[in-house]
C-alpha cells in the first residue's frame, strides 16, 4: 500500500529569505533558466508549492509586462509570506545583479573588459542550458496533456523561432485557441476519479490549488492604499532630484523613459531592447551602438533578469551626460533599476489577491492550460537560442564551428543533474569553477 507523502510545513520567513538571496546570485540563463531553477528547488526539492500552483502563478506572470521570472518570484514570495514576502523575494531576485552590474560597469568605463569573468561564464552557460532542457521536459510532461496541447506547443515554437511572431501575440493566439476549442469541444465535467487523482498529485506540498491564502479577493480600501503608495514611491525620487540633484530635466527624462519602457516589456527584454537602444543611442546620445552591444554582453553574463541591461544604459546616460562622472553614472544605474522594477511589484501585489480567486474557474483554467502549452514552445525557443550561442559562438551552424568544451560540459551537466541527481546549486558552483579553470589553463598554454 502506497503511503501519502509527508506533509510539508510552512517555511519560516528566514528560511525563505535565505533561498531568495541565494537565487539572486545563481539566477543565470534568462527567464527560462530562472524559472527552471525555481521549479526545481521550490516544487521538486522543498515542496513549498505544488506543480499546479506553480504553473497557475507562472501563467499569470507571463501575461504581464516586465520580467516574468522576477514577477513569479514576487508572486510566490507573496503566497508564502504576504506583502513582505513578495517584496523580499522580488528585491533579492534583482539586488545581487544590481551590484554586480554596477561593478562591471565601473570596470568597463575605467579599465575595459574583464576576460577572466568570461571564463567563469563559459562553464556556467552549458550548465544553465542543461537546467533549462531538463525543466522544459518536466514541465512539458505535466502540461502537455492532449494532442491540442502538443499542437499549440509546436505552433508556438515555430511561430517565435522561424516567423518571429511577437510574444504577446503568441499568448493572445493561445488564449483564442483555448476559447474556440472550449466552444467547439466543451470539456466534460471532471469525474470524482479525476478530481481524486488531481488532489493526490498535490499531496505532500505546503501550498496547493486547494490552499486558502490570506488576503485574497477584492478589497476597495486595500486597492486605494496600494495605488496611492505606488504613486508616492514613483514621485519620491523626483522630489529628491528636484531638491538635491543638478539638471533636474535629465533625471525627469530618465525616470519617465524607463517607466515607459517598463510598461511595454511584453515578451521579455528582447522585445523592448530595440526601442531602448534606438532612443538612447540615436536620440539621447547616451552611448554608442558598440557600447550598447557591450552592455547586452554584460547583462547576459550576470545573474538576474536580462532587463538589467537597461540599468547599464542608465549608467552610461548619467556617466556621459555629466562628463564622465562615475558618481552620476552610479546614480543613473540605481534610478533606472528603481523605475524599471517598481511597476513589477505594483502589478503583482495589487492583482495577486484577485488572481488567486480564479484558480478554480474551469473556463479560465482551460485557457491557462493552453497558454502553458504555448509557454513550453517559448521555453524551447529560448533553449535553442541559448544553445546556439553556447555551442556555436561564431554563429556558423556547422560541425567545424562547434565549441567542444561547452558541448562536453553540457553533456556532463545533463548526466550529473539527471542521472546522479547532483544538487543544482552545487553544480552551478562547480561549473563556474570549471569554466575559470579552463580559462586559466587555455590562457597559460595559449
The class by helix and strand makeup works out as: mainly alpha
User: Which ranges are low-confidence, i.e. pLDDT below 50, for 5 or more consecutive residues?
Assistant: none
Percent strand equals under 5%
Topology as a string of helices (H) and strands (E): HHHHHHHHHHHHHHHHH
Number of helices: 17
Number of strands: 0
Ends apart, CA distance between termini: 62 Å
Q: Can you offer a commentary on this structure?
A:
With 446 residues, the protein is mainly alpha-helical. Helix 2 packs across helix 5. The longest helix is centred in the N-terminal third of the chain and has 43 residues. The chain is globular and about 65 Å long. The N and C termini lie far apart (62 Å).
